[in-house]
C-alpha cells in the first residue's frame, strides 16, 4: 500500500492517470455514439422501406382492389428476407400474410408502433418469438394492413458493434494501465537512484555523481546539469583550499617571529626600555602582517 501511494505521488503517474481517464471517457462516448448512431441509421432505413412498401401496396389496392393487394402481399411475403405483412379484418383477426401470431393490441391502432412488439412467423416454433417494428394503416373497407420489419438483425448488429468497440476499449484501457504501471515504476526507480546519490553527496562523498542512463531523457538532462554544477563546486572548493593553504603559509612565518619575540621578552631579564623595544618589534611585525592582506 505504501508503495502504491508512493507511485501515485509521482507527477508522471498522475498525468498518466488523468490522460487515461480522459481517453477512457472519450472512447466510451465514442462507443455509444457509434453503436446507437448505427442503430438509428438502420431504423431510419427501415422506416423508409416500410413507407415505400405501403405506398406501393396502396397503389395496387386502388388499381386492383383487395384481391390484387392480397395477391401482391402473398407474393412479397414469400421472398427471401421479406418484410412482415398482415391483412386483418376490422376486429383484428389475421386474414392473410406471413405472420402466424403477434402481440395483442398491435392491430387496434393505426400508425407506427412506437415500441417493438413480439410476433411468431409461419414455419417456426410457436415458442420462437421475434420482435419487430411496423406501421398499420386502415383501408377504405375498414380492413387493416400491417407492414413491418424484424429488428433482430439491427439488434444483432448493434450488439456486434457494441461488443467490438467495448473489447477495443477494454484492450486500450488494459494497455494504458500497463503503460502507466511500467512508466510509474521506471520513474520511481530513477528517482530512487537520484535520491541515493544525493544522500551520499550530503554525507560527504564529494566524488559521487547523479546517475545518467544514456537515454537522453529529461532525467538524464537534469542529472547532467547537476553533475556539471557539482564539478564546478568541487573546482571552487579546490581553489578555496589552495587559497587557504597559501594564506596559512604566509601567516605562519610572521606569526612564528612574533611568538618568538614575545617569548624572548618574557624570558630575558631586561629593563623597561628592553620590554618597550620588544613591543615595538611585535607592533612592526603586526603591521607587516596586516600589509600582507591589503
Automatic annotation (TrEMBL):
Its transmembrane ranges are: 12-36, 160-183
- All copies of the HAMP domain together span 185-238
Per its record, the protein catalyses: ATP + protein L-histidine = ADP + protein N-phospho-L-histidine
Concerning SMART domains, the annotation shows: HAMP (SM00304)
> Could you say which EC number(s) this protein's record lists?
2.7.13.3
User: What enzyme category does the UniProt record give?
Assistant: transferase
Q: Which residues form the signal peptide?
A: none
Keyword Hydrolase assigned to the entry: answer is no
Give any Pfam family that matches.
HAMP
Q: Which UniProt keywords apply?
A: Kinase, Membrane, Phosphoprotein, Transferase, Transmembrane, Transmembrane helix, Two-component regulatory system
Q: Name one GO molecular function term.
A: phosphorelay sensor kinase activity
Which GO CC annotations does the UniProt entry carry?
plasma membrane
PANTHER family recorded: HISTIDINE KINASE (PTHR45436:SF8), SENSOR HISTIDINE KINASE YKOH (PTHR45436)
Protein's UniProt name: histidine kinase
The species this protein belongs to is hydrothermal vent metagenome
